[in-house]
Amino acid sequence: MCLHQDVESDWSPIHDAAFNGRVLALQRLITQGNCVNLNTLDQVSPLHGACVQGHLACAKLLMENGANLNSSTVDGQTPLTEACARGHVTCVSLLLQHGATPVGTSYTSSPIHRAAAKGHPDCIGPLVQHGADVDQQIDQSGSPLHVACSNQHLSVARKLLQLGANVNNSVSGDLPLHIAARLSNPELVSLLLDHGADRSLRNLEGKRAQDLAPPKSLAERLLRQSGGIQNLTGD
Questions:
Q1: pTM
Q2: Residue-level pLDDT, tens digit, the chain, 235 residues
Q3: Exposed, middle or buried: residue 72 (CB in 10 Å: 0-12, 13-18, 19+)?
């Protein structure tokens, strides 16, 4: 039970203990009645702090004492999105096991998009296993695969495709293949083609992926020919 009922404050001792992984201090503060759901003015909870830093024991202690798993900061970040953004897989799994929503609470971000943007493929599997949509669309960003390609995270793109991501999803007319071509990333182009990307599809400007790749680049050659990147490089 929270004896200190303030729901908003500046950075407090319970935030400090959670953020710095001080489990004994955190336990003492909880025993003394400090509220585990005390928020800063930016709506940062102690659980946010523990998950940002990957302090599993502190996160577990807070959850066992009633921490709000889906509390959202002023910019729409939950403890789960923070853990995903930093690749803290054990925190991600713990939050999901305790019932954190895998789809997020924001129209501009989600846990799976954050993991994709920051290059953490190991966070993708647990999210999908607990109900995250591998093709979840977010305005401007598109699907997690679009985000992975935009940030050139090959391992994340591969993981998403292995889990069934739609390789021909469109955001503002662009497919993941258009993005990879524009970035002149032959490894991404090859991966997408291997998983069935349609090189004939055009974006809103009427451009195919090969039209967006820099002339004479390996990415352009790969898009104009077939047989994979090994055939072009001789490897």
A1: 0.89
A2: 343 444 556 889 999 999 999 999 999 999 999 999 999 999 999 999 999 999 999 999 999 999 999 999 999 999 999 999 999 999 999 999 999 999 877 777 899 999 999 999 999 999 999 999 999 999 889 999 999 999 999 999 999 999 999 999 998 889 999 999 999 999 999 999 999 999 999 999 999 999 999 999 999 999 998 645 545 554 4
A3: middle
Contact present, 173 and 204 (Cβ < 8 Å): yes
Angle between the 79-86 and 121-129 helix axes, to the nearest 10 degrees?
140
Gap between the terminal Cα atoms of the chain: 64
